[in-house]
Amino acid sequence: xxxxxPDRQLGFVAAASxxxxxxxxxxxxxxxxxxxxxxxxxxxxxxxxxxxxxxxxLATPLERLAPGRLSTWLVRHRRVLGVTFGVSMSMHVAxxxxxxxxxxxxxxxxxxxxxxxxxxxxxxxxxxxxxxSFDWLKRVTGxxxxxxxxxxxLLVVWSIFFLCLVDSVGRKQTLHPVAEYYVFIxxxxxxxxxxxxxxxxxxAR
Length: 205
Fold this sequence. Notes:
- It is a single chain.
- The chain is mainly α.
- It has one domain (6-204).
- 85% of the residues lie in helices and 0% in strands.
- It has helices at residues 6-31, 35-65, 69-103, 113-131, 135-141, 143-171, 177-204.
- The chain is globular and about 55 Å long.
């Protein structure tokens, strides 16, 4: 994270992470720590992580397309939002491990091998991006490699969210597919469209 106000930045990450953890624990306390409760908590942590990712993903495009207070704030805090996303995803991973524990030695029925093929590279990118969001690791990485890592990482994580949501539409039964899947897919497509439009505007200049 940036060197400007590290205490305030870490405070934001800590506070947001405590709220995220409280939400997950509330779900588990209401629905239980069995498969049903853990599966719901998995969905909730995925959606919370989605919000933080989207804010970081849209920071630069909004600054280029519609500069203003919101876009300026997002650009200034995008690394903090990225770290918060990384911490949120670590909670998601902890719940995945809990699910495997519940079904051991079998694989959880809601998890496929495609989830491993899609998810593991994404988690590695998230871990690398989160770690290199701290100044000393950013310096070690070098500006060129850092920029490439985070540019590629954003696209990889976007792709994983998109593929997982599309896969869920075809594989998982739900009473509310629009609210649980289609809205998030539409938001992802819109976010990517804004990112492409911002790149095109920059190239045109």
